[in-house]
Amino acid sequence: MTDTAAKASTRKLTVRVNEQDLDVSGVAGHTTTLNFLRDSGLTGVKEGCAEGECGACAVLVSRPDGNGGTQWTSVNSCLIPVAALSDQEVYTSEGLADGDKLHPVQHEMAMRGGSQCGYCTPGFVASMAAEYYRPQRRSCADICGSQSCGSPENLENSPAQCATDHELGANGFDLHALSGNLCRCTGYRPIRDAAYALGEVPTDDRMAKRRGQPAPTAAPFQLQHAEGDFVRPASLSDALDHLAGEPEAVLLAGGTDWGVELAIKHSTAPLTIALDQLDELRTLTQADDYLEIGASLTLSEIEHRLEGDIPLLAELFPQFASRLIRNGATFGGNIATGSPIGDGAPVLLALDASLVLASQGGERVVPLSEYFTGYRASVREADELIRAIRIPTPVAPHARFYKIAKRRFDDISSVAVAISMQVSDGQIRDVRIGVGGVAATPIRATDAESALEGKEWSHETFAAAAQVMSEVGTPLDDHRASAAYRSATAAQSILRFFAEVTP
Ligand SMILES: Cc1cc2nc3c(=O)[nH]c(=O)nc-3n(C[C@H](O)[C@H](O)[C@H](O)COP(=O)(O)OP(=O)(O)OC[C@H]3O[C@@H](n4cnc5c(N)ncnc54)[C@H](O)[C@@H]3O)c2cc1C
Ligand code: FES
Ligand code: FES
What we know:
- The protein is of the alpha+beta class.
- Among the domains are: 287-392, 2-Layer Sandwich (Uridine Diphospho-n-acetylenolpyruvylglucosamine Reductase, domain 3), CATH 3.30.465; 401-501, CO dehydrogenase flavoprotein, C-terminal domain (Enolase-like, domain 1), CATH 3.30.390.
- It has 17 helices and 20 strands.
- α3 packs across α6 (188-197), α15 runs antiparallel to α16 (459-469) and α16 (459-469) packs antiparallel against α17.
- The site of one FE2/S2 (inorganic) cluster (FES) has 11 residues, from loops.
């Protein structure tokens, strides 16, 4: 490591867990929060899969709410190195009760039979508590005075602003908050009953009061350990110095790919560089002709801050993994892994996005369509990181994202197709189609784009383009889907787009 790289200080590190400071100064850079908590005696946090799929390990962390306060956010503790949580506040299911008095979420789970073997319960409780405290959760009574609108039985009588679908309770509880939690034995109805039975948060609730104060700051530090160091850099330039100084270093944002690599391949690095709290990677700004999204903003944060302004992104978010994963996952990590079946790349390709790559030498802007060079390979140099993603604005008005996967939520795509275009003077213009799952990299379906560009909006035009789309890429047969199925669904997405978008 270079001298200039050593700007973050070595100091005593603690994580505040259930209102007590736990010393993490001696952990290795790759020690997961799950392992640390269990080794500290907090065995309510369970290990199910250790790779983000089951939610048994979920805990609450204090994160900035974007308005100067704190939001209790549920995350998978199996995917986050505990060093990344130093200076932060964490609650496990053990810390939620107030003395002998169960937390309202625990009380409802117990009263409504939401727990049988109990293995999944602490994780459900954490996810449910995060939704309980979500500042935007508003009950039907809040919105229009009704006690029942939004309930699954009464949808047809519900005002549009509160009853979006059958997964939203009359108490404003969004069941998608639990989409990353699996239960093998209770069945989901009693769990849903518990969620929908939750009332308003009392004003004297200690965790509710905590929301009004700023989230903990994230001071830089450097942790040294024989099995792997960890650094939270002071700035982007500090991070780039560390990256240049250690060729084997691994960057960390949300950890949702990092944690899986650790669990499956036992990949550890001599140095882990945390990018998650770097201000320079956490901005969201609108310039004259593009929107710039910081590479380390979580998908949940982007979803919340954009409020549907980019419709294609608004379609992507609910289909991307689960709320637990989206609370950690970033676009920087999603693009950097270079997965051919990642969902971010097809959407960003259809939005004609570019990446801002930063190194000690400065910045360069690379169109995403020129970024991938082969299977998990890209033009990004070893000393570069993704600082931001730029999306040209205004975006084309007609856009859809189709994710074909075996399950509706929390599944990896077999094929993903994002389509964007506009119509001017009766002709189709600015067509961009991003596709995942049909080649070694995410690709643009340029032949299908050409089959649409400049043509009239008609079934014949789209049918011809669908025929071209059936030849897109070089799809493989694997356990997720056959090559023939991938080609057929890619083609079908063109026809589906026509059917859905035609007035
Ligand atoms: C249960 C589960 C479900 C998932 N479902 C989906 C899904 O539906 N769709 C999907 O696309 N993906 C999915 N993923 C994969 C993962 O969540 C995404 O790829 C996510 O966007 C990764 O972001 P991260 O911040 O967590 O990356 P991290 O794990 O922190 O990092 C991943 C890699 O990117 C590098 N990196 C991170 N940030 C940068 C940066 N700014 N510049 C350069 N390199 C960087 C890291 O070094 C690391 O190699 C899923 C993962 C899990 C565990
Ligand atoms: S242990 Fe299954 S998600 Fe963490
Ligand atoms: S209660 Fe047994 S797994 Fe959920």
